[in-house]
User: What shape does this take?
Amino acid sequence: MSAAPRGPAVELANLTATHQRHPAVHHVTARFAPGSLAAIVGPNGAGKTTLLRSIAGLHRVDEGRVVLSGSRARVALLPQQSGMDRSFPILCLDVVLQGLWSRLGAFRAAGGAERDRAQAALEAVGLGGFARRPVAAMSAGQFQRLLFARLLVQDADLILLDEPFNAVDARTAADLLAVLRRWHGEGRTVLAVLHDLDLVQREFPDCLLLAREAIACGPTAEVLSAANRLRARRMAEAWDEAAPACAA
Ligand SMILES: Nc1ncnc2c1ncn2[C@@H]1O[C@H](COP(=O)(O)OP(=O)(O)OP(=O)(O)O)[C@@H](O)[C@H]1O
Assistant: This one.
């Protein structure tokens, strides 16, 4: 990393988050240093999305805390594509402009400067000619590029990505990975939920292995040891949907 970190440290202190009182994330304690490029990995149902949404402040924390050093840190979240409605009649440029909403406020329309910025973000992700195109006419990979353009204009210090390379081809994945590397080079803190462990080992210096509880957090090579992976798998296999609600 070249720049001094501008992203916050992210501390998870004994964090528990539930769905209908069943713990999806259970007493997790972990820390990501300022400017980290870190992956959050674990089996299906391990609590990764719930954890990411808790860090973003979008899912209620039942116990423990999420602490971001630098209380004014701007946070941006790339949600999982599968959870998004793409049939809404909206143009690509307007989706990118949504990223400026917190600066514009609810009642101020985007001006020329904001539109130029949104257009530049579209160009940065290879969608320069798409500004007036309806979102419904985009492929999954193009839509993911569009969501990255919206993240770009948000200019966040902490960037949270939920399966950013899902359903995209190798070229799109490589282009979007280059954006992540750029954010990391700018000293932002980047946390990404991922399933591709080869990619994680190649590109992400730090890692949290989750199986509802934190199995390990730290340098990727250590976290993804065979013993830790086996433990995560066993804990996932032992998952009991009928287990009693968390008393925490
Ligand atoms: N809206 C919901 N209502 C009830 N339970 C939920 C809800 N969302 C998730 N869960 C449960 O919480 C647990 C963790 O889910 P979560 O989506 O956080 O896991 P994940 O690690 O992101 O999974 P995946 O890798 O499959 O995307 C799972 O057991 C899931 O069934």
Observations:
- The radius of gyration is 18 Å.
- The chain has nine helices and nine strands.
- The longest strand covers residues 22-32.
- The domain at 1-74+157-165+188-248 is CATH 3.40.50.300 (Rossmann fold).
